[in-house]
Structure formats: C-alpha cells, structure tokens
Design a protein that fits this description.
This protein is α+β, with helices and mostly antiparallel strands. Helix content is 44%, strand content 17%. The strands form 2 sheets. Strands 3, 4, 5, 6, 7, 8, 9, 10 and 11 form a 9-stranded mixed beta sheet that branches. A two-stranded antiparallel ribbon has the order 1-2. A hairpin with a 5-residue loop joins strand 5 (252-257) and strand 6 (263-268). Helix 1 (2-16) runs antiparallel to helix 2 (20-33), helix 3 (37-47) packs antiparallel against helix 4 and helix 8 (139-152) runs antiparallel to helix 9. The chain is elongated, with a radius of gyration of 23 Å.
Amino acid sequence: MFLLKGWNHLGECYWKNGDIDAARNCFTGALNHLKNKISLRNLSMVLRQVGKDHTEKATYVGESVDTAKEAVQLDISDGISWFILGNAYLSLFFAQSQLPKTLKLCMSAYQQAEKDPVAKCNPDLYYNRATAYKYQEEYQLSIMGFSRASLLDPTWSNPQEKKRQLIDYLLKVVTFIETKGKLKGKRLTSMLESLTESDLGPYAGGSYTGPRGNSVKLDKCSLIELQKETNPEKVVVGKVVCSFMSDDPVPFTLCMVDAMETCYSVTIYNMAEGCGPKIGDSLAIPEPFVQEVEVQYNDQAFSYKSIRVDSPVVLAINGKKLGLKKQAPSVLAVNTKSE
C-alpha cells in the first residue's frame, strides 16, 4: 500500500509540473502494483491530455472513458469516480462527432455523482453538467447549473461568465428571429421570391436516396408545419438571413426564413470553420429535429423554435449537398477548475 501511494503521489507531482508522460507512467505503474480507483481516475484525467493530433487525441479520450468506467466498477458508490466518468464523456462529445447520445451518458454519470455527499459539494460537478446541458440545448437547466457552481464557489469567475455568455447568446437568437435577421423588407422579399424547387437539391422530387442506397419518401413542408422533435419524411427549405458565432464556437448558429416568412434558428454541430451557410444562401434540411426553447432568467424571458443539425453533411446549400470536407474535427475543450 505504501508503494501504491508513492506511485500516485509521484504521478500527481509530475502532473502538476506539466510532465504528462511521466505522470501517465506513474499511474500505470501504480495499477500494475494494484488495481485501484484513485490511480484509474488520475489516469483517466491524464489520458485526456495526451495526443499529438485530433485522431490520436480522440483515441486517448476513448481510453479515458474506459479507464473511468473501471474506477466506477471498483466502487459504484463513489461520486468522485462518477464525476470523472462524466467529464470523460463530455470530452468524448467533443472528440467524436458531438453526438447527443454521448451527452446522455455524460448526464447519467453526473446524476450518479450527485448522490454522493462529497461530490455533491463540488462546484465542478454543476459547472460541467451545466456545460453538458448547454450542448443538449437545455438552456434553463444550464443557467441553473452555472448559478449553483457559482454559489458553491463565489470566488470562481468562470460560472458567472459562462452564464452571461449564454444569456447574451439567447438574446441574440431571439432578436434575430423576431427581426428576421434585421433584413429590410424588400431584400427579404427578393430573397424568398428566388426560392425554387432546385434549392432542395437531392431532396427534390418527393424522395431521396438514403445512405444505404434505399429510396426514402420526403415531402416538402413549411417550418410552421413541423412538429416538436423528429419529423420523418419531411424536408424544409428557406433562406439564411443571418449567421453568427457565439463566444463558444460550438454550435454554428444561423436563422432561416421559409416562403411563409416563418423564421427559425438552426444550430449546426461539427461544421468546419468558414464553411457555414452565408446570408442569402438557400438551405434545405431533411427530417429536421425541432426543439422548443423556453428560458426564464430574472426578468428576461426567451421563447423560440430551433432546428438541431448534428452533422452538416445532411444539408443542401444552394441545391448542393455538403461533402465530408465541410465536417470538422471536433474541438476538444472541456474547461474545469479541478482537472
């Protein structure tokens, strides 16, 4: 046991001094001596800082998740281990295609962590979970999480700053939707009159060829006809009236207006930098996923509808389907206080 503590202590010293490889070797050495949750947790955190390029980093983040799972399995009641697993999943979200299912696993781990009285007092838990809620576009819960993190550590400025940025983002989206991108009436009318069937690109004609080579029925509809969440066998098309990047580059956000002059926001994940649709572009979205955003903060209220697009390759811009080159390697950026 003394040798085990020595390996872990030495690894932590190397880690604090920025020698990630040496720290990794120490935690691995401790695990060779005895499999234990502390070494596994430390190794999971260190693995998320290893790798020379995106592909290598993504591989190590996957290993980080597996290592954190092992720590949880050794003591399923330890909230710190669940917290580390949640952080690993949050990193995986950035490293591998920003998939919503990864965020669900992340949230499940954080929920388990909160059951532990020790982990429950950690502001990082609420900060990181608020970050995950943000990418799930559950903004009300995100704001509450940042507020909780700030309450637990009033000296930590990050939660308040992230909350401010999120409020500013919501205000910007609502303003652009209400003003249809602040475009003048004549210009908007001209843009909408230029919409034609050809703007649907591969989604024109009532069907398209799916990824497996099968024919998928697809009916064009207006934005107002969409239902909440999934809309199978439907496609919408409109004009981009504004696009903007928030303080956080994920997601890429734009507003589109259809022929009925209905305006929705569209959030696009995994979009390569500089490849997003521009003002005046036509945009076709097959089987759109619609979210109804309702947020109340102090005396401010935000309410609007948004379409979430998890991959830009499904989009058709100006009648042409986007290729894989428009899909970006995700940015691995998990900002925490304790790691």
